[in-house]
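Ticket #4471: structure export looks truncated?
Reporter: QA, pipeline team
Priority: medium

Steps to reproduce: submit the single chain below to the structure queue and open the exported record.
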Amino acid sequence: MKIQYIKRSLLAFTMVLMLNSCSEDFLTIEPTTQLTADAIQTDADFEALVNATYDPLRWQVDGAATRHMYPVMFQDMRADNVVSQWATFWIAGQAFDKNPIAPNNPSVEGMWKKWYTMISRANTAIGIITETNKISDEKIKTQLIAQAKFLRGFAYFELVKHFGGVPLITEYIKDASYNFKKPKATAAEVYVQIEKDLLEAAQALPTVPTKKGRATKGAAYAVLAKANLYQKDYNETVKYCEQVMSLGYSLEEKFEDNWDLNNEYGKESVFEIGYISGSLYNNFEGGQSYSNQGSSSHQMFGFLFNSSVGNSAFGNSVPRQELIDFYDNSDRRKEYTFITPQTIVRGGRGAISCNCSTNPDGSINWSTEGQWVFGTDTYNYFWPTGTAAFKSKASMYKYWIPPAVQDALPNYADSPLNEKIIRYADVLLMHAEARLMGGTGTLDGASSFKLVTERAYGAGNPKIPAYTLQGVKDERRRELATEGWDRYTDLVRWGDAKKALEAVGKVFTVGRDELLPIPASEIQQVGASILIQNPGY
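Actual output as written to the record:
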């Protein structure tokens, strides 16, 4: 809850992330006792303030089986791309298979807390760093403030996408007597703050990050572009996309290389969440689960029973057959977005056949490079017939890690695979869309579209969609499916949500389901006459 968590942050800085000496990721949690400027003395202390602001990006579960904040729940699952599970045991996921979402939904409350925690930490970091004269290099000071502003702008963007207008707090709060009972700002007012933060960040941030995982000029301009796209300001969208396009990003030659553990922070990555295994792990649904440094996405979403490590994958977030069928077979992305009963994965472990070698005792040598048929039909008796999940019996490829990596994990919910927030392909598709919608610029939208589609289909393939608004919408769905950041809110901003959801048997009530409900617990604290619930709830 925003109020409780901001107050708690004033009293104790309990989640300061320090840099691990053997990695460029910010990994290890070090608690301190008092959040005061006097207690923060060195450049490393000030950097730790900003590192702690990044930390909520990693949050996936907050202490309970009903309180999950995986982005895919709020976007792909709530929309038309995936169904929560093949059975009925994932309580948190079930709620996002249908509308409306209840105001007392724990996951919605967790997501609200996640982004307001980031905002609170950003406000504190900006305030303390701005006031200090203890940082040795003014350039370092400027860039630390810029990183915090980027993160605050990003957090407010996630909030406004899902909730519309929200309380706007940008002060460095030094006193716990501060009046937290704030009414909602309008969505337009929130966007003004988002753009201010991101533009100031973009002007100060480096093109190449000082350390892996940190915000860059490209990340700030990319989120600025998306914020303007959501507001239908196509000229500004084009301008900021073209700023990103001038900074040296390019597409990976192979689509699937974006999810290769050997290619984290690759040339297509504009901003991503860094994870590492074997650093700090608490039970993924335990009271300190938000402090985990690895990702539990592979355990939650991975191919069913595909591991020998403790609890194997749960097979949640099952891609709908309608989504799988939306791809042409000549589209390379189809093979690397889904694991189905027909999927062959190099180096994978499967249930039906293998061309790998055997050990002297006749057992299979799992480490041998080979091709495996996953064979989910082997587990037919686990899949309830008549369900949306049964139609595909699929898993999401983008969260899959190789068996050798799985088997080496101390805990299965401790995956080291990073998760992408913005890829360059996203920027190119935003540019293509905004140019079609009348945005002016110096670069051709058709060329941006062509870069994405030719990688997917191969140059000259007659299956490549035409460069039309519908073509861009379709390619945006195919390119970004299951990544968890835009599908539902894309449908809403296009005005397509009702048609798309009803096509898969879901409800969309115009005037209500465009937004999530404000958490009931937050309204209870602030007062229903001050913090007004969103329409229809």
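Status: closed, not a bug. The export was complete when the record was re-opened. Leaving a note from the reviewer for reference: DSSP finds 20 helices and ten strands in the chain.
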